[in-house]
Amino acid sequence: MGIDELLIEAVIQNGKGFFDLPEAAKLAIWAGRQSSPPYKPKATANNAIGYSVLGGEITAKKVDWREQIDLSTNHPMPQPGSPLYHNLRAPNQWPSCQLLPDFRPVFERYIREMSRLSTRFTSLIAEALGLPATAFHRYFDSDQQHKLKIVRYPDIDELNIPSSRDTGAEREVQGVGPHKDSMLTSYLLQASHHRGLQAQNLSGEWIDCPPKQGTLVVAIGQGLEALTHGVCASTTHRVLAPDRGQGSRYSIPFFQGVSYDADFESVRIPESIRAQKQAFVDRNGGRRLDDIEFTFVKDRFRNHGEATLWFRCKSHEDVAQRW
User: Fold this and answer.
1) Alpha-carbon span 196 to 239, nearest angstrom
2) For the chain, is the Cβ count within 10 Å smaller at the N or the C terminus?
3) Measured between alpha carbons, how far is 241 from 174 in angstroms, rounded to an integer?
C-alpha cells in the first residue's frame, strides 16, 4: 500500500526545484493573477489552483510566511451557471516543461498513487469504526478531486526579522498558523530535515512532529469529522518558521477530497464506537482544548463545497476578490 521510494525522491527533487525557478516563471502561474496588466487574460483567470506568493496567505488572522503551488486532479473550468464552489475544480497550472521537464509527469503520478493510498486508508478507518470498507465511497465523485501543495517555508534570516533576545518569541514566527484541513484526510511528506510541524492534543498542548524518512504524517480533516459525528476529530496543526541559519523547510501535503456537492448527512456510527470516543474524552477531562473552531456544520453551510470555498476565501484574499 506504500509509495515507491524512487517516486518519493523524484517528488522531493522536483518540488524543491520549483522554487529555484525565476520569479517570472512562478508568477506566470500565480493563482492570484488578475486579467489586468502586467498579466494577460487566460482561460484559467478564475482558477484557485496555482502559485501563491510568499506572504500571500492568511491563517488565524496572521500572515503565513510561506510560498507554495497548489495542484490537483485535473478538471475543466466549470460551466457558466455552476455553483460558485465549482471554481475550486479547475485545470492545473503547470510550470514550464522547458524549465522543469519532469515536474508534471512526476506529480501526476504521485497524485494518482496518493489517491489510491488515501482511499485504502479511509476504508481501513471505516472498518475500525465498525462500518463496511466502502462506507465513505458514496461521498466521492466519479472523477473525485484530490489536492496537493508544494510548500517552502523560509527561515527567520531570509524573512529579515530583527534579532530578539527573546528566542521563544522568534520560535513563534508563523510558517502557517493553527488550522484544520477541510478535506477527509491529509498526508504530509516532510521533504527536508527541519522540525516545525506541530499538532495539538486534547489538552491544548502543541506536540512536535519531527520528520522521519519513509513516513507520511496523517491528519484528519473537517470533512471526516462531519461525516462521523465527531468520532474522528479533525487535527489542529501549525508550522513554525525554521530557526535562523537553518535554511528553508519543504513539505508536500496531499489532501484527500470529498464531493463538493455532498451534504452533511453523516454515516451511522455504532453506539459502541461512540461510547468509546466519549469515554476517551471523559478520561481527558471531559472536553477538548482546541485553538481552532470546527466549522463544517450543517446549519452553517448547505454542503461541503460551500464550506470549502469559505475556508479557501478566508485564507486567500487575492483569489477571493474574484468571487
Assistant:
1) 5
2) N
3) 6
pLDDT band at 40 (very low <50, low <70, confident <90, very high): very low
Residue 238: C-alpha distances to residues 6, 129, 173, 194, 235 (Å) = 29, 27, 11, 14, 10
Q: What is the longest distance spanned by two Cα atoms in the chain?
A: 60
Query: How many C-alpha atoms does 205 have within 13 Å on its Cβ side?
Result: 5
Sheet holding 237-240, edge to edge: 174-179, 237-240, 197-200, 206-208
Distance CA 287, CA 298 (A): 22
Q: What is the pTM of this model?
A: 0.89
Q: Which grid coordinates belong to 67?
A: 510560498
No. of H helices and E strands in the chain?
8, 12
Distance CA 135, CA 216 (A): 24
